């Protein structure tokens, strides 16, 4: 079991070039649109540019407002990451951009999405708002609240499936294996971050999986191997419909495992910047096929 680490006084400088995707909250939207596009191929659904823009913008809005509230709440002496420093220092310019993106996303959604797609998106908005309210206010430091890592993984998985399934509900059974693996990958991504940034969460007054269940650390570190094994089994014994996506899930799991193995050598900031990139493997599938 890892020993608790003490967060030293964090003095931010200009972010490195490799941090900007994370600092600007752009890595999660890229992960979402990559998996949505791959799922649409498996489902045989022809999604358009506006589907990509709406999903990417919705994910960015959720991540940005979460970090914006976090930056608002925290004293500068508590902040331990570049991304939270950015949202505190540039609070009002970010708020302006956020409002513009929100209005543009609403306009695009109401003018281009079908009624079924719009209804599915608005239905998903409810649990997202509940999560933000619980995570930032009602149960922020509660010891027994639902782990945020599980909540984020569930919301992310439902989000990437929203438009493909809304267009062709009958294809959902075919999407279950890759969606299940993707959900596990999202959970593993968040859970590993909670291990690497446990001292940050302590400083921020946050509850995380690593702090709630420290005895589960070895299981979290074993998850990439478990996902790779499950994916291999699905690829060997399953059908060919989603085999490309399953290979992407296996590849992402291997990359996550390697990143966790070397995260101390790389440093917390570089590991955090790379972790979401490990989930972007569907871009390879989309560009090469």
Describe the overall structure.
By secondary structure, this protein is an all-alpha fold. The longest helix is centred in the N-terminal third of the chain and has 25 residues.
Structural class: mainly alpha
> What is the succession of H and E elements?
HHHHHHHHHHHHHH
* Basic shape: globular
Major beta sheet, specifics?
none
Rounded radius of gyration (Å)? 19 Å
Chain-averaged pLDDT? 88
Q: Which quaternary structure do these chains form?
A: single chain
Share in helix = over 70%
Instruction: Tell me the span between the first and last alpha carbons.
Output: 43 Å
Into which percentage range does the β-strand content fall? under 5%
Notable characteristics:
289 residues; mainly alpha; disordered N terminus
List the helices and strands and how they pair.
Layout (H helix, E strand, L loop, with lengths): L19 H4 L3 H17 L5 H25 L8 H8 L1 H22 L2 H24 L9 H20 L4 H25 L1 H7 L4 H4 L4 H21 L5 H24 L1 H8 L6 H7 L1
Helix pairs in contact: 2-3, 2-7, 2-8, 2-14, 3-4, 3-5, 6-7, 7-8, 8-11, 8-12, 11-12, 12-13
């Amino acid at each position: 079991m890892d020993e608790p680490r003490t967060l030293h006084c964090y003095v931010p400088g200009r972010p490195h070039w490799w941090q900007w995707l994370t600092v600007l909250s752009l890595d999660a939207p890229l992960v979402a649109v990559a998996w949505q596009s791959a799922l649409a191929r498996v489902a045989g659904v022809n999604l358009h540019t506006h589907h990509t823009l709406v999903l990417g913008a919705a994910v960015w809005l959720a991540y940005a407002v979460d970090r914006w509230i976090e930056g608002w709440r925290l004293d500068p002496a508590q902040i331990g990451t570049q991304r939270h420093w950015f949202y505190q220092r540039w609070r009002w310019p970010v708020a302006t951009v956020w409002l513009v993106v929100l209005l543009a996303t609403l306009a695009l959604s109401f003018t281009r999405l079908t009624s079924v797609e719009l209804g599915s998106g608005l239905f998903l908005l409810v649990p997202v708002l509940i999560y933000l309210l619980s995570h930032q206010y009602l149960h922020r430091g509660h010891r027994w609240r639902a782990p945020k890592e599980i909540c984020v993984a569930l919301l992310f998985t439902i989000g990437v499936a929203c438009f493909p399934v809304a267009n062709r509900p009958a294809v959902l059974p075919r999407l279950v294996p890759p969606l299940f693996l993707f959900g596990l990958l999202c959970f593993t991504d968040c859970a590993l971050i909670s291990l690497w940034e446990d001292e940050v969460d302590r400083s921020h007054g946050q509850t995380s999986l690593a702090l709630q269940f420290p005895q589960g650390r070895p299981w979290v570190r074993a998850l990439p191997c478990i996902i790779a094994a499950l994916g291999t089994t699905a690829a060997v014994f399953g059908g060919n419909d989603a085999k490309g996506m399953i290979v992407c899930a296996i590849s992402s799991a291997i990359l996550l495992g390697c990143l966790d193995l070397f995260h101390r050598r790389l440093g917390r900031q570089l590991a955090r910047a790379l972790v979401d990139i490990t989930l972007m493997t569907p871009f390879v599938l989309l560009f090469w096929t």
